[in-house]
Amino acid sequence: MTTSTPTDLTQCTAIQLQGLYRSGAASPVDTAQALLARIEKVNPQINAFTLVDEEVAIACAKASETKWHAHRQSGDRSTDLGALEGVPVSIKDLILTRGWPTLRGSRTIDPKQAWDVDAPVTARLREAGALLFAKTTTPEFGCKAETNSPATGFTRNPWNLQKTPGGSSGGTAAAVAAGLGPLGVGTDGAGSVRIPASFCGNFGLKPSFGRVPAYPLSPFGSVAHLGPHSMSVADAALMMNVMKQPDARDWTSLPVDTTDYLQGLDKGIRGLRIAYSPTLGFAKNIHPEVAAAVDQAVKVLVDLGAQVEHIDPGFEDPLEITTGLWFLGALTVWNGMTAEQQALTDPDFKAQALLGQHYSALDIQHLNLKRGALGSYMRQFMQKYDVLVTPSVAIPAFDVRSPGQQSMTPESMLGWTPFSYPFNLTQQPAASIPCGLTQAGLPIGLQFVGRMFDDAMVLRVAKAYESVCPIPRPQI
Fold this sequence. Notes:
Layout (H helix, E strand, L loop, with lengths): L13 H10 L4 H19 L2 E4 L1 H20 L14 E5 L27 H8 L3 E6 L11 E2 L3 E2 L15 H8 L5 E6 L5 H7 L2 E4 L18 E6 L2 H11 L29 E4 L11 H16 L3 E4 L8 H17 L3 H4 L4 H10 L4 H21 L5 E5 L18 H5 L7 H4 L4 E8 L5 E8 L4 H14 L8
Parallel strand pairs: 2-3, 2-6, 9-10, 9-11
Antiparallel strand pairs: 1-3, 4-5, 6-8, 7-8, 7-12, 11-13, 12-13
Helix pairs in contact: 2-3, 5-6, 7-15, 9-11, 9-12
């Protein structure tokens, strides 16, 4: 299925923008100017950014425009173009970005210090010619699956301003959905890419752990992944080609990956083996419209030629493992603060940290052993299947709410998103793509979970689905 290129540059995918640059029909400067004008109009409604650097955006766009002009003049023989040359990309405010403060959604971090280091993903994007223009909002230290904090207030969902965009990459997802840049980098420690992708109607990928290097490593440990948010599956594949490069600063980063994630993206799914589990065997209180939309999406996969088997993987709800490890991470950050800093924190983050005090060293060891058993179990289960399909989140987006509005328990924190956190524990690649709207007009997400290290297969299956069920756009 082919679609025409939108006339509004802010509604173009990254690949569409590159086509316009290649033909000379538009330039990176045109895109930057259109983007900044739309940010001025739309961002006050959704509050997706902690920082927008107009001066840097225009300067980078002019430099990219010069490169694209030279490329056209040379008859496409120039090799100076980066893989993301002139394409706008926003960075979540948990990720170091040279020249800009990284405040992690917190009032405890002093913005007046040297910010002279790029995280690996930021460095790779910069080297690829991406137009870095903004930092996106996050709850404090990425501590929850909705995006609010005492530092930045509420971020809102472009589909309905009364609803949350999810979190913790809520600013990234809201920006991409609202046409405030086609690409964004998020992080995912228990669903923080896939939850907001589901709520905001984007494509979001949590790659295999270590595929996208991190520095410094998250205080929440080896459940935390970095991944792309995008307007299309192909855009995410384009980003992965850039983000996947190893970095010596991350001792967990995987070896060199020679995969071109754009190659084979359109091979289709005929004959692929797909496991479909609508509840994972333990999920409860799934919204009926979510269940119906996901079931209909699986029928689309069958129509595309996939061999679908209805089967639950057969593991118990690992919520206690996820939240136990998470609360310990929060406690680690909390214990590094002064009393004055602790007084400035989000009450939800404080509650998590205090819950972390209840775990002994033996408790931690038992959690990690249970996690290892789950990872081993799923490696074996996935030997029979190319992907596992589930809902992305059990419910559509809920109303925005203030920090501290609910008591902090494992169930209140993540009980409504039972399909996301298991695959942070197992470290498998997983993606969310929209599969419909509720009667109230809110997006519903479909999740594809792949075999460890088979990120390309997750993208391929998602692209096949997208080819017949295009990603919708909100009217904002």
